[in-house]
Amino acid sequence: MKVKVLQNIMDANDQIATRNQQLLDKNKVLALNIMSSPGAGKTSLILETIRRLKDTVRTAVVEGDIASTIDADRINKEEVPVVQINTGGQCHIDANMVNNALESLSLEDIDLLLIENVGNLVCPAEFRTGAHKRVMLLSVPEGDDKPYKYPLMFTLCQAIIVNKMDMLPLADFDITAFQRAVTGLNPKARIFQVSCKTGEGIENWVSWLEAELKDR
Amino acid sequence: MKVKVLQNIMDANDQIATRNQQLLDKNKVLALNIMSSPGAGKTSLILETIRRLKDTVRTAVVEGDIASTIDADRINKEEVPVVQINTGGQCHIDANMVNNALESLSLEDIDLLLIENVGNLVCPAEFRTGAHKRVMLLSVPEGDDKPYKYPLMFTLCQAIIVNKMDMLPLADFDITAFQRAVTGLNPKARIFQVSCKTGEGIENWVSWLEAELKDR
To answer: For chain A, what is the domain count?
Structure first.
């Protein structure tokens, strides 16, 4: 009985996710589901991305948090449309929450939708939202062994961003070992090394994103 | 129907957690449920704690991970009993998993049981394990705003350990603002500032733990 109920929940989520993606496609919006541990730098990456693309790409943001509007308030200063989802304790955002957010955005005026998930390396990977690409950040202080411990997240993402490269001198992080671990799980993943603080490497991430936008 | 099923799951977990605690009490074992984001330093804290207490306290460890035995392998070198729980995708450890682990330990030969939960600031807070105290780590690079974003975890823990204090010069972390946020949610929580890398502040944490062990 229990399994059946859970199965139904996942099926329902997938159906709504598919409808979300159809709605995004109709409006020619590229949507990214951005995931990471708490404090890895999702909001900082979103801010950097908005600033670098602001002359050419119309970006909007959906902010997912269990509680608070701290991140939405930071995004709001960039004068892009931002919708806050408070999950009320739930450890991930699901397709229905994203559907509600889409309804409150003018999709015809948006090229790129950045969906910031709840900070969590586990559960967000399990729920489709309707976004076209899954993107994750890992910050250098978290350590290079994370692909072995959280394999689903590293397996599903098309882009993996190693953030806080400026902290490398203080951390025991072997970037070659990390790349090897990721490639073992997910050979097609693109890995970007960046520091949202110093700006290092952000241009490579933005170039990838611009190519994805052109492909649409 | 859905709510009822979930309610039953939580009730069943609580009942097993209560039995776990009775079993621990019967054997005069103090158990800690140690939680944090991925990579905040749970295993490093456990290693430091084992080393500092090894002449006076018989410690054992339960390692919870979604996959891999990386952390258990590190602990194993300290020659203390260690049991690995692999949750097989589940985002937290529950009372039943801990019950299985307790059955494979000689509880009469243990004073202190350190249970390392899955790296996740959300779900582990919701599931009682039977441990007497909840302890969490937050690492400095994660940022000082986390109590606002993950309030349940910060509300439930008796001890909150700020790790990676050696990274403070490179991080935008306001320790006073952090303490204020924690105190607002959880006025009784003890906050410890440590660096498992340099050893800074570990003695305060160990003193607290020794006092808790004496109280039993």
So the answer is: 1
Chain A residues with CB-CB distance to B170 below 8 A: 166-167, 170
Say if the Cβ atoms of A121 and B38 lie within 8 Å: yes
Shortest distance between the Cα of B20 and any Cα of chain A, in A, equals 24
Q: Please list every residue in chain B whose beta carbon sits closer than 8 Å to the beta carbon of residue A67.
A: 148-151
pLDDT of residue A49: 98
> Residue B159: which pLDDT band, with cuts at 50, 70 and 90?
very high
Query: Does A42 contact B at CB distance below 8 Å?
Result: no
CB contact under 8 A, B148 and A67: yes
Burial environment of residue A2 by CB neighbours within 10 A (0 to 12, 13 to 18, 19 or more): exposed
- CA dist., res. B108 & res. A110, Å (int): 64
CB B91 within 8 A of CB B127: no
Question: Quick one: which of A28, A18, A6, A8 has its CA closest to A128?
Answer: A18
Q: Is B74's pLDDT higher than 50?
A: yes
| Domain that includes residue B60, residue range | 11-214
How far is the alpha carbon of A145 from chain B, nearest alpha carbon, in Å? Answer: 8
Task: Examine residue A5 and state whether it is found in any structural domain, yes or no.
Answer: no
* Residue B4, pLDDT above cutoff 80: no
pLDDT tens digits, residue range A24-50? 999 999 999 999 999 999 999 999 999
* Positions in chain A whose pLDDT score sits under 70: 1-6
For residue A117, being part of any structural domain is answered with yes
- The answer to the question of residue A2 being in a domain is no
Whether B150 and A2 lie within 8 Å, measured CB to CB: no
The CATH number of the domain where A48 resides is what?
3.40.50.300
Closest partner CB to A141 (pick from B5, B39, B67) = B39
Query: Is there a domain that residue B5 lies in?
Result: no
ipTM of the complex: 0.90
pTM above 0.90, yes or no: yes
Q: Measured between CB atoms, does A198 come within 8 Å of chain B?
A: no
